[in-house]
């Protein structure tokens, strides 16, 4: 038996047994996206079992029932309720609405637009974010800032994320320096030890997915050099969570990123 827990990523389950794709897809139509290789890479690598249960409006135990015949043992004790309190699909109250589907269709990163809208609303008010997929990177960022998040699925390709601004004052989201003080020194150090990739022409959210995929096979003593059209704000917390450091420099309107594991003293 393969032991999994509520915080196990769906990608880890699929890697252990590819038949888990069909098993999970049978739980709820929302999971049909796992049958699409591109969407599977986007979703499975950052969604846990407990998060997927909320997306699928089911209990974690439902996942356990589907996965046990494939050799998985879900261990979570009291963390596996028989019924999920988030299963109700009724709309929730909100103060303003922001639809970013057109931005994503154009390949634009809506991060600054979302953060701008949240900065303008009053404390305690709620922003309804309309999207085509669950914005897990954004959710992780905002939850660390004490925002309250609820996600509903009014239709198969529409996701409503309700973001309530905390009443208490929170810190401003940390943004990277436009030009890292050690960028040039790092370029010299990793000369001949870099994998180069260009994501400027990729539509959202493929740049983030592609970069994370490249890092999965990157040797620990090498760096990933990225050509990007914007500073990828959704990606930065993911890099930190996975133990990566990065240096950023703007050059003639292009964002240059160097992503690496080794810690360096600031120049």
Tally of helical segments = 11
Strand order within the widest sheet?
3-4-6-5
Instruction: Report the strand count.
Output: 10
Q: In CATH terms, what is the architecture of the largest domain?
A: Orthogonal Bundle
Q: Quick one: overall form?
A: globular
Terminus-to-terminus distance: 50 Å
CATH class of the largest domain, named Mainly Alpha
Average pLDDT score: 81
Query: What fraction, in percent, of the residue positions are helical?
Result: 25-40%
- Taken as a percent bin, the fraction of beta residues is 15-25%
Number of domains: 3
| Rg estimate, integer Å | 20 Å
Which segments are poorly predicted (pLDDT under 50) over 5 or more consecutive residues?
78-88, 170-174
Structural class category = alpha/beta
Provide the succession of SSEs: EHHHHHEEHHEHEEHEHEHEE
């Amino acid at each position: 038996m393969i032991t999994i827990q509520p915080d196990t990523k769906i990608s880890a389950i699929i890697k252990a047994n590819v038949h888990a794709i069909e098993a999970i897809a049978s739980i709820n139509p929302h999971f049909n996206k796992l049958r699409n290789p591109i969407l599977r890479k986007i979703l499975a690598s950052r969604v846990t079992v407990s998060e997927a249960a909320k997306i699928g409006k089911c209990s974690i135990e439902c996942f356990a029932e589907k996965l046990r015949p494939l050799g998985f043992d879900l261990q979570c004790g009291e963390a596996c309720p028989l019924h999920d309190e988030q299963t109700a699909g009724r709309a929730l109250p909100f103060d303003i609405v922001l639809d970013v589907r057109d931005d994503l269709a154009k390949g634009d990163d809506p991060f600054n637009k979302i953060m701008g809208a949240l900065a303008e609303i009053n404390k305690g008010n709620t922003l309804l974010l309309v999207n085509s997929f669950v914005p897990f990177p954004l959710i992780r960022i905002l939850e660390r800032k004490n925002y309250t998040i609820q996600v509903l699925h009014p239709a198969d390709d529409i996701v409503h994320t309700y973001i309530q601004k905390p009443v208490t004052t929170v810190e401003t989201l940390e943004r990277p320096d436009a030009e890292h003080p050690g960028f040039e020194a790092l370029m010299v150090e990793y000369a001949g030890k870099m994998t180069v990739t260009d994501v400027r022409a990729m539509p959202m959210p493929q740049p983030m997915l592609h970069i994370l995929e490249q890092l999965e096979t990157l040797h620990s003593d090498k760096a990933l050099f990225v050509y990007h059209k914007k500073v990828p704000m959704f990606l930065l917390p993911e890099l930190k969570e996975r133990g990566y450091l990065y240096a950023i420099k703007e050059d003639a309107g292009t964002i240059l990123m160097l992503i690496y594991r080794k810690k360096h003293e600031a120049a």
